[in-house]
Amino acid sequence: MDMEVTAWTSLHHAMNAKNDKRPFSRAALGRIVRFARPHRPLLVTFLVLSVVTAALAVATPVVAGRVVNAIVDGAAVGHVVTLAVLIAVIAVAAAGLGLTQRWFSARIGEGLIFDLRRAVYDHVQRLPVAFFTRTRTGALVSRLNNDVIGAQRAFSDTLSGVVSNVVTLLLTLAVMLSLSWQITVLALVLLPIFVLPARRMGARLARLQREGAAHNAAMSTQMTERFSAPGATLVKLFGRPADESAEFAARAARVRDIGVRSAMVQTVFMTALTTVSALALALVYGRGGYYALRGSLDPGAVGALALLLTRLYAPLPALASARVEIMSAMVSFERVFEVLDLEPLIAEKPDARTLPAGPAAVEFDRVDFGYPAADKVSLASLEEVATLDSRGGEQVLHQVSFRAEPGQMVALVGSSGAGKSTIAQLLPRLYDADAGAVRVGGVDVRDLTADSVRETIGMVTQDGHLFHESIRANLLLARPGAGDEELWEVLRRARLDGLIAALPDGLDTVVGERGYRLSGGERQRLTIARLLLARPQVVILDEATAHLDSTSEAAVQEALAEALDGRTAVVIAHRLATVRAADLILVIEAGRVVERGTHTELLAQHGRYEQLYRTQFADEADDGAGDAAGDGGAVANAGAGVDGEGADGTGAAAGGGGAAADGSAGAGALAKTR
Fold first, then answer.
1. Structural domain boundaries of the chain?
2. What CA–CA distance (Å, rounded) separates 295 from 286?
């Protein structure tokens, strides 16, 4: 290792040293040891190799000095050749050990990364939905990437570096003192001139790097948001291209300027440090040569001391930064453990039961619920805020009770924010009730296994979320072992088989981010196909036809008719025409069931349901009267919205749910399954 490499090493350690003064946590150390325990045999072998490699690094200068002495003394050629061969053997052995050591280092480091990432990933999957509604995805992903890698360096880099550097330093000092204590003291006196600039310049470069990283992160955030399909659409619709470009250019310019400053600081530092290194070598050669000419020091010892000088300088800056590097690794470990310490609010009981196959009733028995406070489900660092929001925990559901027998449909209607979706989320146990019980098949969902809940209950949400994968992969989420025949069958039942068959890649067509390559209706029908593949006994539809046009809604309604056939259903609907045939309609307001009954019964009560129905019927008749004439004859019934009611006083179409009042041809599709 020459002096320039030594200078780079010093700068590297100084740059990566973070001034974190927090003390060691014994609990954290104990957990680190537990994570490292499976890798103990590899660690021991790795440390032994580090010691041997350090010893070989010191042996080479000593043998080189003997070569010089042999030449000066006129020793036999064979002796010189033998010493040269020994240097070659040491070099080859050191190279081989270095490669082996690197393999062990990579194996340990990557193994630790695997263990930590898997532990965090598995743990995060068990956290409640409330955690994901609060957490910034980028901050969470950073824990799985940057912090895990930072923790890994504690083993693959810092630990081996400390061991090898300590051994190298001790052996080097011992050999140098044995050769000439005067020159050794001279080298140590010059050491501060070498180390201190590295610390100062390294800290400055570290600040520049952090500033550059912050600007790079800002650029990445801007690109991530603008380059997604929804973001790009929003920018094209409302954005100002010139302003967007100027904002990005300003951030990129700051990164450029920081890069120039960093390059110049490094160049100035390297120039100064290599100059100091050259002066140190000059002193060694000058003083050593003086001693050699006086006969008090062998010529070979002078050469050995010059070579050993770099072995002395390189470990000291690294060891000086070792504590800070260890603390940096500890911070990374603690950030990982911080996520692992979040307690999942939804946990499977040790004696959890499996629900028998077959039709299942659904029952809510005096259920109370309030969303958990932020400190129960989140971390300030993951939300990227100084302190967590103290709000939360207020009760949003009050004594909710109802029952749906096997094969029946219960519809939840009411104002936005009344608690309809909250009720739906308690059934598949995305949250747990605070009081009362939610039962499926007569068993509290908290007493069921997670697999049993997933197999029994299926849900279609209004956003119809899909992964950026193929149609096949998105469907197989429901049942990984399904064959192509089963996939095509559910696509046929969801009225999608013709569309998918016409695509160039068929089932292997990638749907894009969040399914953005498909229309809203196609996305919904694909999620319904996935539901059909899962074959649940209980189906939850949360505004499954929201935000769809009449044509798309008609197709989705037909697919839903297949999905609900013979199953217990809980349906949340904004368009009341879609649930007129429900066995039971619950009107939810402020987290309470304020009315219940069939469509006819609720209209006869002249309460909140009648207000919702008449308001919606009148609005939709006004907005869609012209189109409705060609979509199923809704115009004929639109005039009966308020004053011209049918004989039953409901204002419904004479066909009892054939065409919706809004002119949607498929609005009555759910009624066809009754």
1. 3-340, 366-673
2. 14
CA 44 – CA 50 distance, rounded (Å): 10
How many CB atoms lie under 10 A from the CB of residue 311? 22
Please, which pLDDT band fits residue 629 given cuts at 50, 70 and 90?
Answer: very low
pTM over cut 0.70: no
SS (H, E, C) 472-490: HHHHHCCCCCCCHHHHHHH
What are the structure tokens assigned to 563, written together? 């999905």
CA atoms of 180 and 308, how far apart (whole Å): 12
Beta-sheet strands, E only, within 283-415 = 362-370, 395-404, 409-414
CB-CB contact of 229 with 237 (8 Å)? no
Question: What 8-state DSSP symbol labels residue 38?
Answer: G
Evaluate whether 315 touches 165 at the Cβ level (below 8 Å): yes
Q: How many beta carbons lie within 10 A of that of residue 425, not counting itself?
A: 17
Whether the CB-CB separation of 568 and 439 falls below 8 Å is answered with: no
415-455: pLDDT as tens digits: 888 899 899 999 988 888 999 999 998 999 999 998 888 88
Angle at 669 between CA 667 and CA 673, to 5 degrees: 150
Which residues lie closer than 8 Å to 534 by C-beta, 6 or more apart?
A: 455, 458, 478, 479
Give 542's strand partners: 572
- Rounded Cα distance between 171 and 59, Å, is 9
C-alpha–C-alpha distance, residues 463 and 45, integer Å:
53
- Whether 412 contacts 576, CB under 8 Å: no
Q: Which CATH number is 366-673 given?
A: 3.40.50.300
Tell me the CA distances in angstroms from 576 to 249, 459, 505, 581, 651, one per residue in order: 51, 20, 39, 10, 12
- The DSSP-derived string for 530-596 is HHHHH--SEEEEESTTTT--HHHHHHHHHHHHHHHTTSEEEEE-SSGGGGTT-SEEEEEETTEEEEE
568-572 sheet: strands from edge to edge = 457-460, 538-542, 568-572, 409-414, 584-589, 592-597
- One of 3.90.1440.10, 3.10.20.310, 3.30.200.210, 1.20.1560.10 is the CATH number of 3-340, namely 1.20.1560.10
Locate tokens 């680190």: which residue? Answer: 32
Tell me the DSSP string of 584-599.
EEEEEETTEEEEEE-H
Contact 193, 291 (CB under 8 A): no
pLDDT on residue 33: 80
Instruction: Round to whole Å and give the CA distance between 556 and 559.
Output: 5
Around 109, how many Cα atoms within 13 Å sit in the side-chain half-sphere? 19
Q: Characterize the bridge pairing of strands 584-589 and 568-572.
A: unpaired
Secondary structure string (H, E, C) spanning 154-168? HHHHHHHHHHHHHHH
The two three-digit tokens of residue 287, written as one number: 């003083």
Asked whether the predicted pLDDT for residue 331 surpasses 80, the reply is no
How far is Cα 413 from Cα 523, in angstroms, rounded to an integer? 24
Could you tell me the two tokens for 542?
A: 């949360």
Query: How many CB atoms lie under 10 A from the CB of residue 306?
Result: 20
State which amino acid sits at residue 452. S
